[in-house]
Design goal:
It contains four helices and seven strands, in the order βααβββαβαββ. By secondary structure, the protein is an alpha+beta fold. The chain has a single domain, classed as Aminopeptidase. It starts with 5 loop residues before the first strand and ends with a strand.
C-alpha cells in the first residue's frame, strides 16, 4: 500500500488533477449526477489551492485528490454550523477519486487524513459540502460521523449541497 500513500500535490500536478476532476465529472454525468458543471471545478480553482492539495497515486497514476484549507465558501455564512462560523475549521474541497480507482476506500482514507491534518494544526472542526444528488458521497460523510448542518445552493446547480461538520474530540 506504500504505492498508494497520500502526498502533497505540486504545481506540476495541476493539469493531472484537472483531468482527474474532468474524468470524475464525466462519470458522474453518465450516472445522472450533476455535481460538477462546466463552470466548476476549473484549472484556476485547482491552481488557487495547489499548496493545500493532496493526491494519491497508484501505479504512477493520479488516483485521488482533495484540497484541505481553512477557506469556507461564501455561501457557508448562512449555515447553522455546530460551532461558531468564524471559528477555525478545516474545509474539504474537491474530494475526488478517479472512476478507475473507486471502491478502494481512497475517499475514506483522504477523509481520515483530513482529520489527522486538522489535529496536527490544532483545528477542532472539519466542514464540507456534498451534492444532495450524490447519495454515495452523502452516505460516506454521514457514515464517518459528520452531522448535517444545513444546505446551500451554488451557481449553475439545480439541487442544493448539504453542509456537514464534524467536531473533533481529543484522544
Amino acid at each position: 500500500m506504500n504505492d498508494a500513500s497520500i502526498q502533497q500535490a505540486s504545481p506540476a500536478d495541476a493539469e493531472a488533477i484537472i483531468q482527474l476532476l474532468a474524468d470524475c465529472r464525466q462519470d458522474m454525468l453518465a450516472r445522472g449526477i450533476r455535481q460538477w458543471v462546466a463552470q466548476y471545478p476549473t484549472l484556476q480553482a485547482v491552481w488557487a489551492d495547489i499548496a493545500d492539495t493532496f493526491v494519491v497515486r497508484i501505479g504512477g497514476r493520479l488516483a485521488a485528490t482533495v484540497a484541505l484549507n481553512e477557506k469556507g465558501e461564501r455561501e457557508y455564512e448562512q449555515v447553522r454550523w455546530l460551532t461558531p462560523f468564524h471559528q477555525r475549521a478545516l474545509v474539504v474541497h474537491r474530494l475526488a477519486v478517479h472512476p478507475a480507482f473507486q471502491r478502494r476506500e481512497l475517499a475514506r482514507r483522504l477523509m481520515q487524513f483530513a482529520k489527522q491534518l486538522a489535529a496536527q494544526r490544532g483545528i477542532t472542526t472539519i466542514r464540507l459540502d456534498g451534492f444532495s444528488g450524490n447519495p454515495a458521497a452523502l452516505a460516506l460523510y454521514e457514515g464517518m460521523g459528520y452531522a448535517r448542518a444545513g444546505e446551500v445552493f451554488f451557481p449553475h446547480r439545480d439541487l442544493p449541497f448539504v453542509c456537514f461538520e464534524k467536531v473533533l474530540t481529543s484522544g
